[in-house]
Structure formats: structure tokens, C-alpha cells
Amino acid sequence: MAYIAPASQPAAHGVRAALAAVGHFFGGAFRAVQIARMTQVLHAMNDAQLAQIGLTRADIPSHARKMMDLSE
Predict the structure, then answer these.
(1) Helix (H, G, I), strand (E, B), or coil: what is residue 56?
(2) Burial (CB count <10 Å: 0-12, 13-18, 19+), residue 61
(3) Domain boundaries along the sequence of the chain
(4) Of 2, 5, 28, 35, which shows the fewest CB atoms inside 10 Å?
């Protein structure tokens, strides 16, 4: 005998997919804000402070993105 899924399953899948999409959107937005904050803090440091942590001004954007990737 063939199994017939209840009508509520496709709707539940749609809700889960919508919630996942919303979560993905806000997760990406949160990550962008965190990267912007880290970039702002690093840019506020002087060159000697950046050198102490092994960075130059040119390294700041990629360093901020890399640090966020490590935190996930």
C-alpha cells in the first residue's frame, strides 16, 4: 500500500524553509556588522599598535573577515 503524506507536511516544510532563509539573512547581516565593528576598531589603532599584533593597515579588511570565519 502506498504512503500518502498528510497535507500539513508540505506546509511545514515551507515554513521551515522560510525560517531557514530568514535565519540565514540575519546571520549574514550580523556577520557584516561584526566585521564592520572589528574593522573600525582596528582602524582606530595607530601603526605601532597594529605592528605589535602583526598587522598593517592593508591587512585590516582581510584580517577582520578571517577572524569572523574562525569564530563560527
Answers:
(1) coil
(2) middle
(3) 26-71
(4) 2
pLDDT tens string 10-61 = 666 788 888 788 777 777 889 999 999 999 999 999 999 999 999 999 999 9
CA 16, CA 26: separation in Å to the nearest integer? Answer: 15
d(CA 30, CA 20): 15
Let me know: does 68 contact 35? Beta carbons within 8 Å.
yes
Please give the grid coordinates belonging to residue 66: 578571517
CA pair distance 33, 40, nearest whole angstrom: 10
| H-helix or E-strand spanning residue 32 | helix 8-44
- In angstroms and rounded to an integer, the radius of gyration of the C-alpha atoms of the chain is 22
Q: How far apart are CA 46 and CA 19, in angstroms?
A: 43
